[in-house]
Amino acid sequence: MVLIAPSILSANFLDLRAELKATEEAGADLFHVDVMDGSFVPNITIGPFVIQQIKEAARLPLDVHLMIESPDRYIADFVKAGADTLTIHLEADRHLHRSVSYIKELGCKAGVAINPATPVESLQDILPEVDVVVLMSVNPGFGGQSFIWRSIEKLIRLKRMIDQRGLDTLIEVDGGVSPKNAAQVVDAGAGILVMGSAFYKSKDYMETVRSARSG
Length: 215
Ligand code: DX5
Ligand code: ZN
Known about the structure:
By secondary structure, the chain is an alpha/beta fold. Helix content is 33%, strand content 19%.
């Protein structure tokens, strides 16, 4: 069954504890936490200090998505803050292999994310090392953007690469995912769906999880 990872970027931060609880009660699987530095992406969000507090209140694993330049500088800080999966961008890190190895050495699952313009083929040599590939289906930086439909084609190609090599790498699709397109995204190979605005702007979280899962 596909895993649902609501992105707390679209949650109500003034009432975050209640939002986390409601997300858990809705049957979600992970909390997706977006970290932005105002350089790799045009927006700025939160850092390890806030994540550490979220970790204390959350019962679900934290799926931390770093949209920051040279993420290798902060890997240890985010693992210490409580990340269960730590994702870095291929476009932001010069020594991806070293960084992925380091994340795993620290006992955390390692994710690599790629932007819409980055071909999935550029993951060829790092693929066996990573637990999760985060395929961006919007240009990162903001919640609430429209799904880029070309991502479906990339998703199919990536799934084929993974299957042909007998790997069990999960594909996480991030950006513009909603119950409306979830079935197509899952059919194309996604194992994790990130949902920000489609989840937190919905009236009934449980129904949103249910409809995203059933397509
Ligand atoms: C975009 C972030 C996403 C975002 C998803 O830069 O990486 O995780 O929160 O939000 P929606 O689902 O609203 O596109
Ligand atoms: Zn994200």
